[in-house]
Structure to design on (606 residues):
């Protein structure tokens, strides 16, 4: 009977968790459908379905098939990647500030992508590969700079913020030297954007979600134990060092591939985990909910930037405006509690 | 319950270039309670962390059933030996039963599902620590004493024959210290669990331990039954303190009374 008491509580937590994940999926699907129908012009649901089925509908085929669909798909896939990668870092380092877009990893990927596209004239998968390598290099560099007899979370974050600022100036410098840069392109690499998204861009994102996302989810139980502290995790049989390496590789991979395609969409990686944690409550791993929140943030942020605001903004401007106040709030709270979050 | 053997063989360990333990040998008595005592920075936590596989040895070995513990698969070790670190972290808002359930981690692979046996192990652990009525409370709302019982419950849910604890009574008021030590003694007597703990309080260590290990300067100073180990000479050598040892009128074990410069009759 006592075991059934435990089982009841466990099943209640599982139900809440499934309700949150199911609800988030449903909302995301609804958002996806709405962004296909709404915009400068309204396209009826039947027409959208006909376009998706591959029929040629004059007018709608271009607006929905060429403009809205690729944009929505890339937004969702990039959002999933940012949400997963960001939450993984935050869980592993037990600090919401330890997100890849705060500690310079996204910027590292950005720099590599900008150099690859503007200077080396590359495109496609090569850009993603370079972004992943650069993201990992930055992760290793921050880790090396911050470790002095053990890596302290706060030191790593401060070093990361410094590295991030340095990399920002490299991006600005590269763009200013580029022969034919335009404002839209610059905005992509400074704040992130899904302007001019193409369905072919979905492939590397899908591949990265399958490989890196799969690796991350397969490690999610071990990652959960890290929340109890590294010593407790080790006592529970988690190989802490191996888990760290796997999580870093997977999260950097997710962030870097997405960054190579959309640019570093500001603060999505940073915001998704805490928002998902707030919605989910203490009901298990926040990884999957964070991925869904990330997708929703990019999809809705992009729609808002296009149609709901007085002027057209890239999605990164919208998410940046959401993220900045939260960053300030966290820093104020960190000051008040004396360093721990 | 099968008795597992844990021993330390010529162990040197430390942090970075700093060596704290120098060629230390120790056999843990199976089915008994061992308390490790010593002054601050004498290496007692380093010894416990090395035994628990948290710290790789610089030289020598920690042997669990004759095998080097640092080369065994982590999960396999975690099914035999549990550890309660000094300051574990509770995720925000986590329910007591959920936290205790984390103790089942070493019994699960990537794909295995939660079973009835897991629920039973969690329930048993909570019953033994008298935390069942807290099952659905959030850990961060509990008092210090309750929280420590919950952490011990998590280690119990791991169902290990060996349990290591790093200062399990620190930050607890005296009634909760006694409660925790009584609980560990129950566990030792009912299930035969081998308990190894680092303790600050010499008198509580002498009262509750079957075997007392006194450390000084990264080496063993003395070990044995409390009335052999807890002597005025040991206290002077280990803590640099004059003292008198008298029999504890409640337990018959030795009790240390410190001698300072003031208020002496």
């Amino acid at each position: 009977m006592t075991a059934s008491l435990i089982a009841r509580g466990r099943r209640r937590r599982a139900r809440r968790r499934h309700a949150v994940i199911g609800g988030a999926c449903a909302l995301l699907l609804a958002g996806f459908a709405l962004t296909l129908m709404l915009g400068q012009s309204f396209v009826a649901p039947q027409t959208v379905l006909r376009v998706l089925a591959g029929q040629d509908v004059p007018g709608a085929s271009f607006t929905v098939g060429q403009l809205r669909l690729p944009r929505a798909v890339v937004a969702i896939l990039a959002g999933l990647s940012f949400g997963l990668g960001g939450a993984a870092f935050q869980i592993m380092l037990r600090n919401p500030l330890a997100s890849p877009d705060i500690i310079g990893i996204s910027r590292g990927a950005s720099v590599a992508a900008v150099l690859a596209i503007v200077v080396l004239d590359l495109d496609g998968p090569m850009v993603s590969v370079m972004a992943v390598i650069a993201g990992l290099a930055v992760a290793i560099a921050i880790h090396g700079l911050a470790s002095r007899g053990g890596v302290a979370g706060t030191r790593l974050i401060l070093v990361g913020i410094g590295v991030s600022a340095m990399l920002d100036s490299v991006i600005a410098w590269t763009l200013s030297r580029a022969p034919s840069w335009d404002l839209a392109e610059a905005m992509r690499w400074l704040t992130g954007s899904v302007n001019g998204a193409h369905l072919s861009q979905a492939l590397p994102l899908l591949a990265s979600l399958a490989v890196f996302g799969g690796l991350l989810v397969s490690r999610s139980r071990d990652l959960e134990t890290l929340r109890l502290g590294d010593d407790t995790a080790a006592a529970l049989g988690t190989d802490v060092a191996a888990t760290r390496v796997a999580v870093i590789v997977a999260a950097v991979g997710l962030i870097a591939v997405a960054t190579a395609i959309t640019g570093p969409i500001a603060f999505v990686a940073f915001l998704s985990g805490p928002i998902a944690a707030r919605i989910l409550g203490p009901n298990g791993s926040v990884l999957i909910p964070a991925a869904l929140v990330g997708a929703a943030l990019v999809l809705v942020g992009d729609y808002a930037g296009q149609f709901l605001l007085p002027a057209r903004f890239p999605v990164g401007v919208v998410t940046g405006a959401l993220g900045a106040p939260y960053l300030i709030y966290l820093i104020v709270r960190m000051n008040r509690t004396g360093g721990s979050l | 319950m099968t008795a597992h053997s844990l021993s330390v063989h010529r162990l040197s360990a430390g942090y970075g270039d700093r060596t704290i333990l120098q060629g230390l040998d120790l056999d843990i008595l199976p089915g008994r309670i061992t308390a490790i005592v010593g002054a601050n920075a004498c290496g007692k936590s380093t010894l416990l962390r090395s035994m628990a596989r948290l710290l790789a040895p610089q030289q020598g070995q920690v042997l669990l059933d004759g095998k080097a513990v640092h080369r065994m698969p982590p999960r396999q070790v975690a099914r035999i030996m549990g550890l309660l670190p000094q300051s574990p972290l509770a995720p925000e808002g986590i329910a007591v039963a959920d936290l205790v359930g984390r103790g089942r981690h070493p019994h699960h692979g990537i794909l295995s599902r939660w079973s009835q046996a897991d629920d039973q192990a969690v329930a048993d652990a909570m019953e033994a620590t008298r935390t069942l009525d807290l099952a659905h409370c959030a850990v961060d709302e509990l008092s210090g004493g309750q929280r420590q019982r919950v952490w011990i419950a998590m280690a119990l849910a791991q169902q290990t024959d060996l349990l290591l604890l790093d200062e399990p009574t620190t930050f607890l008021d005296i009634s909760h210290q006694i409660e925790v030590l009584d609980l560990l003694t129950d566990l030792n007597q009912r299930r035969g669990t081998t308990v190894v703990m680092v303790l600050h309080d010499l008198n509580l260590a002498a009262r509750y331990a079957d075997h007392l290990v006194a450390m000084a300067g990264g080496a063993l100073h003395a070990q044995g039954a409390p009335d052999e180990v807890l002597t005025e000479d040991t206290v002077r050598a280990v803590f640099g303190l004059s003292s008198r040892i008298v029999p504890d009128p409640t337990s018959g074990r030795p009790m240390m009374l410190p001698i300072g410069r003031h208020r002496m009759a």
Q: What stands out?
A: The mean pLDDT of chain B is 92. Residues 158 and 213 of chain B are 26 Å apart (CA to CA). Chain B touches chain A through 50 residues (CB under 8 Å). Chain B is about 30% helix and 30% strand.
